[in-house]
Design a protein that fits this description.
Layout: E1 11-19, H1 25-35, E2 39-51, E3 54-60, H2 63-76, E4 81-84, H3 90-102, E5 108-110, H4 125-135, E6 141-142, H5 146-153, H6 160-174, E7 178-181, E8 193-197, E9 202-206, H7 218-231, H8 236-252, H9 268-272, H10 278-291
Parallel strand pairs: 1-2, 1-4, 4-5, 5-6, 6-7
Antiparallel strand pairs: 2-3, 7-8, 8-9
Helix pairs in contact: 1-7, 2-3, 3-4, 5-6, 7-8
The structure holds adenosine-5'-triphosphate (ATP) and 4-amino-5-hydroxymethyl-2-methylpyrimidine (HMH).
């Protein structure tokens, strides 16, 4: 008898960089997709030698290799949603924007990775311009952090009101459906606060502020969770609210590894249930076998 189960599963694509430390980038995105029961596919734009203390080296993939990965995935498997993360240079950004158009990739979430949480600029000014003019207008939502929102809006952001003003300016000037200005780089209580603006509704998304130094990859995780929810057919507002809840809970289970900022705990229910001990799962399995 054929016992195979034919499972249909939503598919999402991440176009982003690899983080050797496993906390951000492609690694965080694929874990987030898996948690949401979405099949994760990837197009790697660059390889970073990175750990919890910082980025040591970045090697860009050839633009043609990025394009080939996107085409291989979309032409055969198809994707219901996609996200972009670290795109690194102007050539890759331009090529990704062309592929999004040519392959009609819908539900695109752009995490405009330009500046690290510590304020260091990761892409040059020409690449920022290309991102604004080619890729961002194709997104259903963009998710800048504090420093990225400063660049995109031209405002200094030091308060909730500044975050709101920046979201409005970014929406107006960059023509995306929605903007989420993230508060992780703010001080005090604002660290857990994000601002949503879609041209109509200006909303403050507030969760508790989690007291942890282990916040590496929160932005990647949030944008990947939004894409996963969109792939599952949720509307954009619902996708964002649920993604925010997910990243907050994952932060409360953040992993204390390395000397610097550890990653969030993407698979927290396993730890919450005490199954961090994998032996437990095996024991339960053998008990069931014994009973049969
Ligand atoms: N200490 C915290 N407590 C609660 N929420 C937080 C905290 N730090 C970040 N967040 C949330 O995590 C999400 C990501 O925001 P953040 O500003 O950290 O993005 P980012 O700088 O792009 O992240 P990264 O570069 O580390 O991937 C947002 O929803 C933000 O509110
Ligand atoms: C590969 C990669 N993408 C994104 C970020 C931003 O968190 C990072 N540190 N590394």
């Amino acid at each position: 008898m054929n016992t195979a189960i034919n499972s249909r599963i939503p598919v999402a694509l991440t176009i982003a960089g690899s983080d050797s430390g496993g906390g951000a980038g492609i690694q965080a995105d694929l874990r987030t997709f898996a948690f949401h029961c979405v099949h994760g596919t990837s197009a790697i734009t660059c390889v970073t030698a990175q750990n919890t203390l910082g980025v040591r080296r970045v090697d860009a993939m050839p633009m043609e290799a990025v394009v080939a990965q996107i085409q291989a995935v979309v032409e055969d498997i198809g994707v219901q949603a996609a996200k972009t993360g670290m795109l690194l240079n102007q050539e890759i950004i331009f090529a990704v924007a062309q592929q999004v158009e040519a392959l009609q990739i819908n539900n695109l979430v752009v995490d405009p990775v330009m500046v690290s949480r510590t304020g260091a600029q990761l892409i040059d000014d020409d690449a920022v311009k290309t991102l604004c003019h080619t890729l961002i207008p194709k997104a259903v939502i963009i998710t800048p952090n504090r420093y990225e929102a400063q660049i995109l809006s031209g405002l200094q952001i030091n308060s909730l009101e500044d975050m709101q003003a920046a979201a409005e300016i970014i929406h107006k000037t960059l023509r995306t459906k929605a903007v989420l200005v993230k508060g992780g780089g703010m001080q005090g209580d604002l660290r857990g606060v994000d601002i949503w603006f879609d041209g109509d509704k200006l909303e403050v998304l507030t969760t508790k502020q989690v007291e942890t130094k282990n916040t590496h990859g929160t932005g990647c995780t949030l944008s990947a969770a939004i894409a996963a929810n969109l792939a599952k057919g949720k509307d954009l507002w619902q996708a964002v609210q649920q993604a925010k809840e997910y990243v907050t809970t994952a932060l409360t289970y953040a992993l204390d590894i390395g000397e610097g900022q550890g990653p969030v705990g993407h698979f927290f229910p396993l730890w919450g249930l005490g199954t961090g001990d994998w032996e437990l799962g095996k024991k339960q399995g053998s008990r069931e076998q014994g009973a049969g």
